[in-house]
UniProtKB/TrEMBL annotation:
PANTHER family: ACETYLTRANSFERASE, ACYL_TRANSF_3 DOMAIN-CONTAINING PROTEIN. Keywords: Acyltransferase, Hydrolase, Membrane, Transferase, Transmembrane, Transmembrane helix. GO terms for molecular function: acyltransferase activity, transferring groups other than amino-acyl groups; hydrolase activity. The chain crosses the membrane at residues 27-45, 57-77, 97-115, 139-160, 172-190, 260-279, 291-310, 330-350. Pfam families: Acyl_transf_3. Residues 361-415 are annotated as: Disordered. One of its GO terms (biological process) is lipopolysaccharide biosynthetic process. It comes from the Bacteria. Residues 365-374, 387-404 have a biased composition (Low complexity). This is Peptidoglycan/LPS O-acetylase OafA/YrhL, contains acyltransferase and SGNH-hydrolase domains. One of its GO terms (cellular component) is membrane.
Length: 415
């Protein structure tokens, strides 16, 4: 499994460059999830308009797949040899928990306002991010619905520091074997669900943290290969074409058990190609200043959007009825803007200051570090401040262009 050459390559691999394109891509994934929920809530009643949003966002739920793959990639890419397990876990809790706590309290307040019954055990599970382990229908979606993915991410964070030393010593050939095997295991989840009670099959394939960790480890293995200069994949244009073709084919013809596997691979190709473009300084449409800011607030946006939409629709009496004519698309656009404003406030006044207060400081890097080569790929030894998440995690705070001096950083690291 390991070799002297592999260990040497890992030790001498260049430090990670900033990856602002991955932050910009986070917003696209968050937008896919938003569009999926807007479609399933039936906000648009006009059939022609509804057909458009249904077609565009039919597979939008797979945006969570992107967050999980990205989380594994960025956390391995940015891991520093001097970080202890305790430091890593403290930093990740500081990243996700303050926002989660605010939305948990807000969701309970909304439940109280509408006199919705809330089992205390469900509230406690959600508070501790344990709800994804509970297969009872409705419990894993309790309180703030979307926080189930944070429960999965919490499990990934627990496992990564334990597995990372082994990953660093693994031979490249075995890493490539894992890149091939992990999507096949994702595919195998569908026949494997026959082993669990029918009522728990959705939970098993879509929620159960060990099952969803396959996407996280896919990103982690690819990051280790790229870190050593051993990754081989299409460029950003080719990866984007593959993704669009996969998306269109999946919407039209491919069954769910297959498109979940194909989209995991397509997302991985886009993530690695965008990261490679940033490392090499090649053009990328995803590192523009507006997209990077949207990516920074995408974690907060993801956490607030369902709660805001369901609360407003219930309060106005429009839940499940839809809006006719042009009003439907206008309401969706209004929700997008309102959620974006709230996400910006949450990022600015909760996420950023709590990260500064709670997360351990990273040791300063030397101002100038010479370039090195690893596996024929040249990368700059600059600090990664790229957060995941899902995570799920908004990252590269303040990173406007790769290598720009004096950049502000919300989080040094996904999610």
């Amino acid at each position: 499994m390991t070799s002297t050459a592999a260990v040497s390559a890992a030790r001498h691999a260049p430090a990670a460059a900033r990856l602002p394109s991955l932050t910009g891509l986070r917003w696209i994934a968050a937008l896919l999830v938003f569009g999926f929920h807007a479609a399933t809530m039936r906000i648009i009643a006009e059939p022609d308009y509804k057909a458009v949003i249904d077609g565009l966002f039919a597979l939008g739920l797979s945006g969570v797949q992107f967050f999980f793959v990205l989380s594994g990639f960025v956390l391995v890419w940015s891991a520093r040899p001097g970080d202890s397990r305790r430091t890593f876990w403290r930093r990740r809790i500081a990243k996700i928990y303050p926002n989660h706590l605010v939305l948990w309290a807000a969701a309970l307040l909304v439940a109280w306002w509408f006199a919705d019954p809330v089992p205390p055990a469900a509230a406690l599970e959600n508070l501790l991010l344990l709800q994804a382990w509970d297969p009872r229908p409705g419990w894993f979606y309790s309180i703030n619905t979307v926080s189930w993915s944070l429960s999965c991410e919490f499990f990934f964070y627990l496992c990564l520091p334990l597995a990372l030393p082994l990953l660093r010593r693994t031979r490249p050939a075995l890493l490539w074997t894992l890149v091939i095997a992990l999507p096949l295991l994702i595919l195998a989840l569908w026949p494997a669900q026959q082993l669990v009670p029918e009522v728990s099959r959705w939970w098993f394939t879509q929620i159960f943290p060990p099952a969803r960790s396959l996407e996280f480890w896919l990103g982690a293995v690819a990051a280790e290969l790229m870190r050593r200069g051993r990754w081989r994949g299409p460029g950003l244009t080719g990866a984007s074409v593959i993704f669009v073709a996969t998306w269109v084919a999946a919407v039209q013809w491919i069954r769910a058990e297959l498109w979940t596997t194909l989209l995991a691979v397509a997302y991985l190709l886009v993530i690695t190609a965008a990261a490679d473009a940033d490392v090499r300084g090649r053009p990328s449409p995803w590192r523009s200043r507006p997209l990077v800011w949207l990516g920074e607030v995408s974690f907060a946006f993801y956490l607030v959007h369902v709660l805001v939409m369901t609360t407003v629709l219930r309060w106005t009496g429009d839940w499940g009825t839809g809006f006719g004519g042009w009003r439907g698309p206008a309401v969706v656009l209004g929700f997008l803007l309102v959620n974006l404003v709230l996400a910006g406030l949450l990022h600015r006044f909760v996420e950023t200051p709590m990260m500064r207060r709670l997360a351990p400081r990273r040791p300063a890097r030397p101002a100038v570090v010479p370039r090195q080569r690893a596996g024929g790929t040249e990368a700059r030894n600059t600090e990664v401040d790229n957060a995941e998440a899902g995570g799920t995690e908004a990252g590269n705070a303040g990173a406007r262009t790769a290598g720009r001096a004096g950049e502000r950083s919300t989080y040094a690291d996904s999610r």
